Amino acid sequence: MRNLIIYSIMSLFLFSCGGKNFTVNQVESHSFILIKGDSKKEQVIIDNGQPLILGTDTKEYKLDDGVNASKLQINEGAHTIKIIRDGSVIIQRNFFVAPGNSFEVNL
């Protein structure tokens, strides 16, 4: 009987020790600009770079709520976005985006 108690206690220690629980949070390494709304071939200029034509140089998506959107990948950090329609600047914003986050612009 004594041996049975000792073996039971030893087996409890053996099976209950050593378990570790790790949580890994994976953050996407890129950030994005999400331009929402119906595009009319606007030009998008990010950080004074080359102009992109919405719908031509970008892929458009249909969101769950039925709104059209274009998603552009950018690096984390501070940026400037300028959107031009028919030769006039309609949006110009400075923003900061963290890794794995998106900045939304509504047309």
Summarize the structure in words.
This protein has one helix spanning 2-16, and strands spanning 31-36, 43-46, 52-53, 60-62, 68-74, 77-85, 88-97, 102-106. It has 107 residues and is mostly beta strands. It has a single domain (29-106), classed as Immunoglobulin-like, CATH 2.60.40. The strands form 2 sheets. It has a 4-stranded mixed sheet with strand order 4-5-1-8, with no helix packed on it. The longest helix is centred in the N-terminal third of the chain and has 15 residues, at 2-16. The N and C termini lie far apart (80 Å).
Quick one: how many beta strands?
8
**Do you know the CATH topology?**
Immunoglobulin-like
Low-confidence stretches: none
Shape: rod-shaped
Distance between the termini: 80 Å
Just name the CATH architecture.
Sandwich
Q: Per DSSP, what share of the residues sits in E-state strands of 2 or more residues? A: 35-45%
- Classify the secondary structure makeup into a structural class: mainly beta
CATH class (first level) name = Mainly Beta
Number of helices: 1
Helices and strands in order:
Layout: H1 2-16, E1 31-36, E2 43-46, E3 52-53, E4 60-62, E5 68-74, E6 77-85, E7 88-97, E8 102-106
Parallel strand pairs: 1-8
Antiparallel strand pairs: 1-5, 2-3, 2-6, 4-5, 6-7
